[in-house]
Amino acid sequence: MPLSSGQLEELNLFQRKVYEDEPKDLLQFAANYFNRRLEQQRFFARNQESVALSKGIVLFPSATRNDSVVASGRAGVAGLQSQSQDQLFKASFSETTDPHGTRLHDPAPTATDEAGHAQEDTGFGSGIFKNDFRVNQSTEKNIKKPLDPMAPAEEASGSSPQPSNTPRRSVVAPRPLPMNFNAQRRTSVSGETMKPDNLDNWIPENYAEKSGLQLERLEKAIGHNFLFNKLDAESKRLVINSLEEKVVKNGQEIIKQGDEGDYFYVVEKGTVEFFVGSEKVNSSGPGSSFGELALMYNSPRAATVVATTDCVLWALDRLTFRRILLGSSFKKRVLYDELLKSMPVLRSLTTYDRAKLADALDTEVYQPGQIIIREGDIGENFYFIEVGEAAVSKEGEGIIAHLKKGDYFGEVALLNDLPRQATVKAIKKTRVATLGKSGFQRLLGPAVEVLKLNDPTRVAH
Ligand SMILES: Nc1ncnc2c1ncn2[C@@H]1O[C@@H]2COP(=O)(O)O[C@H]2[C@H]1O
Ligand SMILES: Nc1ncnc2c1ncn2[C@@H]1O[C@@H]2COP(=O)(O)O[C@H]2[C@H]1O
């Protein structure tokens, strides 16, 4: 039976950790790693219990209020230290016995760059998911405010905390849910595909069932948008019913560069233009979407967006965006963020450019001795080395170059419309991110000039 996309992505994440940490004791590493994943998911479940409580829903009717809510208050990375007291999060392997666990068990990264990206890839608490596991809320806060498991700590803990003696908000007429309620699935960190027989009852804030006519319009508007095509049916239903219609007049500013992100937009009708400073950088029309960057990276809006005709837009709130789209449709951005930021050849790309590039990448893994590119073949892909080493050789010349993590190859054939000019073979187990020919032509922007300048065969033709 083929693995689901969620299972594949989980394994993919694990593989990345193995490559990065190169553990000597793989089984111990795997045991600790998956225990931690489990703890994180339990933690999310507890967070969602708080969300549900705030809406008057009891997720775990058999647990006492104190048990369940207190558990949510001390779980997460910070709370893992206290896991021995908390049976819900109990791990069968001790963190302290992990010989390789320093990074794996580090708290979520604290260093962030100017765009708000985490500097260290710990696999889970890093990159776009920065701060997600650094939640240390008090019981009151958990009850008071719905928590976004993907929100930064400041936000998740509430911007204007209530004094600790403030009475808890009363929970009106709790609606019991089945015990098999799987609250953590919506968190999307593992990218699980939700199975129709296992749907939970999380209801987005702005959820409103759409009419048949609206659904028809939306199907047309977002039917071809790849972000939505990646969603399973249930996630798509939640997203569609959370979209709010916004009618915008010609000339109206929809987003202002530098502002905080609140909504993600899909264009049903009309056209919009994007400005960075006073420079027009882009335009788009029906079926396209915008406004995701600030929501993904918790950064200020990267551009001003102005309607250039009367427009009909559909807006998705930040929380639903992060809960559903970030972990699935934007998963590649999470996976490739660190790699792309670290590549000198891509230094000229903006956050927006890198995000678009990440969307187009795929991962391939080669064993030592395996040929990645064969001299004389037609070039289809461009490659970035994520992990490993490869050798470049030419017929009659032998090895002419060595490539390592952060290097790229396969550009010569694509730049010059030539057959492959050399053979590239993995020396160690090598993981590469691949970019297809059309992506290469569309998405590298100013980096193409750098590639041309560095073309190793440039003198020859
Ligand atoms: N060249 C561009 N640079 C930055 N943002 C862009 C660009 N083209 C389109 N956009 C969109 O403009 C949006 C402005 O808000 P965000 O930064 O949230 O997300 C941004 C992108 O979705
Ligand atoms: N001296 C070289 N000559 C040709 N290709 C090289 C050389 N050094 C590195 N390479 C890489 O090997 C790749 C083989 O496929 P391409 O010709 O598409 O792109 C080539 C370059 O990325």
From TrEMBL:
Q: Name one Pfam family in it.
A: cNMP_binding
Q: Which GO terms describe its biological process?
A: adenylate cyclase-activating G protein-coupled receptor signaling pathway; cellular response to glucose starvation; cellular response to nitrogen starvation; negative regulation of Ras protein signal transduction; positive regulation of protein export from nucleus; positive regulation of transcription by RNA polymerase II; protein localization to bud neck; regulation of cytoplasmic mRNA processing body assembly
For region Disordered, the annotated ranges are 95-130, 144-197
Record Gene3D superfamilies? Jelly Rolls (2.60.120.10)
Q: Which GO terms describe its molecular function?
A: cAMP binding; cAMP-dependent protein kinase inhibitor activity; identical protein binding; protein kinase A catalytic subunit binding
One GO cellular component this record assigns the protein to is: plasma membrane
Sorted UniProt keywords: cAMP, cAMP-binding, Nucleotide-binding, Phosphoprotein, Repeat
Compositional bias segments (type: Basic and acidic residues): 97-106
Annotated residues for binding of 3',5'-cyclic AMP 1: 292, 301
Instruction: Tell me the residue numbers annotated for binding 3',5'-cyclic AMP 2.
Output: 411, 420
UniProt KW Repeat keyword: yes
Q: Which residues form the Cyclic nucleotide-binding domain?
A: 227-342, 345-452
Residue spans with biased composition (Polar residues)? 157-168, 181-191
Assembly and partners are described as: Tetramer, composed of 2 regulatory (R) and 2 catalytic (C) subunits. In the presence of cAMP it dissociates into 2 active monomeric C subunits and an R dimer.
Matches recorded under PANTHER family: CAMP-DEPENDENT PROTEIN KINASE REGULATORY CHAIN, CAMP-DEPENDENT PROTEIN KINASE TYPE I REGULATORY SUBUNIT-RELATED
| Membership in a protein family | Belongs to the cAMP-dependent kinase regulatory chain family.
* Protein name, per record: cAMP-dependent protein kinase regulatory subunit
